[in-house]
Specification:
By secondary structure, this protein is of the alpha/beta class. The protein folds into two domains: 229 residues, 3-Layer(aba) Sandwich (Rossmann fold); 176 residues, Glucose-6-phosphate isomerase like protein, domain 1 (Rossmann fold, 3-Layer(aba) Sandwich), CATH 3.40.50. β4, α6 and β5 form a beta-alpha-beta unit. The structure holds 5-phosphoarabinonic acid. 5-phosphoarabinonic acid (PA5) binds next to loops.
Length: 465
Amino acid sequence: MITFDFNNMLRPRLGGERGIDPARLDALSERFRDVHADVERRREAGEMGFFELPYGGELVEEIARFGEGPGQSFENIVVLGIGGSALGTIALRTALLDPFWNELESAERDFFPRLYVLDNIDPATFGTFLRRIDLRRTLFNVVSKSGGTAETMSQFMIVRQMLEAELGDGYRRHLLFTTDPESGVLRQLVREEQIAALPIPSNVGGRFSVLSAVGLLPAALVGIPIRELLDGAREMDERCRTADLRKNPAALFAALQWLADTDQDAPIHVMMPYVDRLRDLADWFRQLWAESLGKQRNRAGEEVFAGPTPVRALGATDQHSQVQLYVEGPFDKTICFLVEQNPEEDVQIPSLYGNVGELAYLGGHTLGELLRTEMEATAAALTRRGRMNMTIELPRVDARSIGELLHMLQVATVYAGALYGVDPLDQPGVELGKQLTYGIMGRPGFAEHRAEWERREPPRVEWTV
Ligand code: PA5
């Protein structure tokens, strides 16, 4: 079971005026009961479908069967998707596969396929990738909830044409869509072209979809034990059913971050794993926290311009990049460390240079000891300087604890949404960008529309060099 140490967020540990006064947390307990009731009500009303994903069902069995059976006839799985349709899969891949998975020989991968996630449209990357991949041995999993995202649809059309050119009608066998069960262009193509598809429940949005077919299918295809992921998520879900703020880990996480922002002027929330395998989970969280909480209007429609700024860092690497700022810069941040209690692998540092003080102290220790000590020393330095920090400890980076952590952070996000008074499930700002892109690209006369758009934008000539 993962554990949470929030002590260094609180005033008694930080001293003086720094940190959150435990009395504020106590005062929030009553309000949290309302937050909890509101979230539970929206959950029961079916507005927050991600809560049901840990409970699996027939679709999970179907995914597992496909992953263990027909899915194994491919050497490469390529996910085409962006944002919430890609970041969860990347996080799972980094956390739960060998760090050099795609470079391993087939036998070293136990004959599971390689897994690529293409979540951008830079032609230099995409074009190079397509030149290198053997289409005949590749399954393209096109992931889009809406089925209309410009980046993913462009990738899909490029790939579909190449597949058809090489395989004729057989192109279908190399495509699998993960999309809304009813609506969107991808769903239409499923019907018209008989392409295989898995549903994303209508009430599950992109950034809350990692434990749906979006993340589970690629995970199952590369041998990640998806049932254990869900077991962990379920266990966390049960821990978060209590309305008692002090017993609910997601509630404490959300409440402390919200108080840090609104009471302590600390709107920058850094997530800093001291485990390479969790670096992309921090990236996934960055999107979840940012896109869910960054809102112009609250749920009553008033302008609030709310939202903390999540930042991803990595220990020990960023001790030599960011930590100077965190320890001595403005008091505008919280740092959340992620650590692993019992790493599977460790590497001994040999006892060389016993007479050289700068090296002698390292010899005889392990890299794991050094990494852990560095994390503890960084936490202690932050605490001494009055900087709020917390530690989430995973017993092991395995499917079960990753399921726990992912679910906890999703639940915390909807609690934080309620505390900020915003709807954590929508993303009107992203939609605006999508509409503007469509407005320029989607009408005849692309060049004229673009020129007209530039004319309408505020002038920027003087400040262009
Ligand atoms: O979290 C979200 O809703 C977004 O980040 C989406 O996942 C992203 O915009 C991609 O959308 P779609 O899955 O519809 O292609």
